[in-house]
Structure formats: C-alpha cells, structure tokens
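Researcher: I'd like a structural prediction for the single chain below. Treat it as a standalone chain; there are no partners to consider.
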Amino acid sequence: MTSTDVEVLIVGGGPVGLTARALLERWGVQTLLVERHAKLSPFPRSRLVNVRSMEIYRELGIATEISARAFAPSYGHIRFRDTLCDDDFAAAAMVGINAPVPESPEVGVVTSQDRLEPILLAAADSETRFGAELIDLVEEDDGVVASVVVHGDETRVRARYVLAADGANSTVRSLLGIGMTGPGALAKITTVVFDADLEHGAGAHAGVYFTSHGTFLPLYPEGGWAWVSPTPEDTETADWAALVSRAIGTDTHVDVTRVQHWVMNASIAERFQHNRILLAGDAAHAIPILGGMGMNTGIADVHNLCWKLAGVLRGWAGPSLLETYELERQPVAQQTLRQTVANTQLAIGVQTRRQSGETPPEKIELPWSDRYFAQLGLVLGTCYRSSSILTNEDAPTTSPGSDYLPTAKPGHRLPHQWLTDGRSSLDICGGWFALLAADPGQWQQLPTRSWPLRVEALPQAYADHYGLGPHGALLVRPDGHISARLSDHPADDTTVEHAFATTTCLPATVASSRQLS
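Model: Treating it as a single chain, here is the predicted structure.
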C-alpha cells in the first residue's frame, strides 16, 4: 500500500474544494485534492457567482477570466411568467449582478458551474487526483490518516488536517457521525438539460425564468437550457420533451440531452469541526438553490478557513484559531438557510397556485419577498464574532434585512473604497494581514513579530469617515474582515502585539518570543 504525506488533504473537487486548493497554494501550503468522480462535473448545477465570491476570485487573479466566460450583466434578472413565452407578471434585478454597485470593486456573474470549475482547477498547480474515493479516516495526535481508493487500489494519505468539501452526501461527515439539523428534504427535483431555439421566445434577458410549470435557466452565452421542476410521480414513462415544451408555451422542438433527479435539502451540520477535520460547503450546509447562495456560502467558508490553516501550520497562529471557523461561519449558514427556505417555500407556493388556477390572472402574486434578491446585507454585511475579533460589541451575523451599511467596526468586511493609486481598499488584503493608517509612517517604525503584515496608507478622508482620526489604524485579517481598531499611535508595540496575538489566538508569551528574520 502506497502512502502520501501532505499538510492538508482536500476531499471534494467541486467549486469549494478547488477554491480552497487555490487559496492554500497561495499561502504555500502543501495540499492534495481527491475527487471520487473521474473528471470535473459536466453538469451545469450552480448558476450564480455573487459579488463577494468575485472579490475572493479577484484576490486569486481569476475574476476577469470568470467574467469573460459568463453571461452579460443584462442576464442579472429574475422573471416570473405563466409560461416561458408569456409576459412577465413579476421581475426583479439581481443586485450586484445586473450592474456594478458602489460597495464593491467587482460585479457578480451568472455562469454555469461547468464553466467555472476548469478556471478554478487551473488556478493552482498542487496535485489533484480524480477517480479517488475516500473510504476511511483515522485520527492521530498529530494528524489524520485517510484511506483512498484509486482504480481499485488503496492508498493512504497522511495529512496534518483534512478539509472536507465533499458535498451534501459527505462521506467525511458520515464517517465522523456528525448529524444534520434543519427542515431536511424540501422537494424532489428533476433537472432537464435541453437544446431549443428560444432566442426570440424567451424575450427579455434573465438568468432565471420562474414559470407556473417549472424554472428555466439559460446555460451558456452561446446556447443551451435547463428546466427545473418538481419530479413527477412516474419518471420511467415521463415525456420530458413534452413537459418542457408545455412549460415553454409553444410548439418549439425540444432536444433533451440529460435528465438528473435530485433532492432539494435544507440542513446544517451540527458541527463544522472534529479535531483536525473541518467541513465546508455543502458538507457543512445544504442551502436550497433559490437565490444562488449555496456555492457562494461555501466559497466564503474556505476563504475564512484557509488563512487560519496556514497560520497554524506555519506557527504564527495558535491551534485554537481553527475553533473560530465554526463560531464565525455556522451562524452565517443558519441565517442564509432561514432566508432561503422562506423564499423557496414562497416561490413553490406561487408556482403551485398559479398552475392550479387558484390565483386569478389579474392578481399579481410575487414569488419572493419584495427585497430578497437585494442580498448585499447577507453577502457583504456579514459580521463575525469570535475570540479572533477584538470588540466588546454584540452584533448580528449580517446587516439587518437586505440592507448593507458599510462600517469599519471589528468583525465586518473592510468597506470598499477606491484608493488614489487605482486599487480597491480590498486589494490591500489577501495573503497577509494589513495595518491601515492615515499616518502609516508611525506604525511602520514599530518592531513587528512573526506575522505576515503590510502597513498601508489609508486616505485621510477614508480614515475620518470611519472615525479613525489622524493617528488611528485598522488591523485587517487576510480574509478582509477587520479584527481590531487601534484608536491612536501607541507608545510602544504592546498594542499591536496584543491585537495580533488575539487575532491569531497565539498566547502572548509565545508571540513575544517570535521575531521576524
């Protein structure tokens, strides 16, 4: 039996696992990704890369390529019709997708997962094994031993940590005996991928067309469609082309190329961590597809986690920093799930009533809460609370409702502002900590320790707007969230050292003994 030693074993080669691989490689962490399927998924699946995920991909240098292969911004709308070829009776813009927003340097995109994954795979060079199925895990004091089967041959992988991004039916979660909480299965769903000439029939552009007979999704800028609907009772004899044609509302010829049955689940793992094994993405939370939050929540998971793994592995963070992952991300998943489930139930209810004729045609019934797709509060307004954040304030997990109110308080994402050199303030963050000050010279003179740190100038107007004053500073974590506000230039380095030690959960006695070379 062969054996491989790595720092982090990533289980699962979907968007979340591939993003984690790229993030960890940027930190110089040795990884191995194993995926049980023989190749990247050919199925479209996830549709939306939201504005926060695009900010993360901006850090990795691939946002421009993702945008180039995606739909035009005009597809950043949702339309509700009785059939695809009918007029809209409700419509909404996807805020942050249909047009730029001043709160971000990026614009989200409508794209298909099978267009996104090859870009993510090419974003890192670390080893990836397809057709490799994890079958067992054994935890040891200093790591984890995984048993992986490749083409019938079993191999062992020894890793310091395991990052499980192996989907809603996670093998890793099952092996650990971690249960799920929440509503559970909401509906049995069928996705039919098909080709048809709908260039004129669909009319105004949209990324999603809800109809009374199912949901239509344009798959690629050059063509292709998917129809998503509750699974009929008799799938063996179902005439999929006829069902799709009925939902289109014309006699358009439909060429069905693929049919997939699946279950829409809504649940969250009871725990996101078990010693040296951490769950992310659908392995940690199954989010219904309405609103496009599932994949994006998983991308934010690994953005939160990977710098912490790097810090622990490189010694500039304490092992307990990993415990803040669940404390910070599980509440976000819970709030996202609540909002998504409520809107899923509302949309399904409207579809059912209009299909049955219960709703008079003259009565306009919205299939979603009126501001659901104005998601910036949920996407950009996330506020973390853990031992890694220096604050005495209690705060909600996200900005209230759908509103996003930029703030430089600890726990929040650093607000985007364009700097004088053309960069976004968010470009200062990434593979290091950032100390942002209107008067950086005073802070640069302080002796620093072993943390990866850049001291950057913050325009005085920016500092004043967020109440820092002429000599204050913000300490920003590598994931772009503010960990501390330093109100004035300290007399010595004690204030900065304390802020770093707290942010990285490194005992002060250890922190003070570490000097940069």
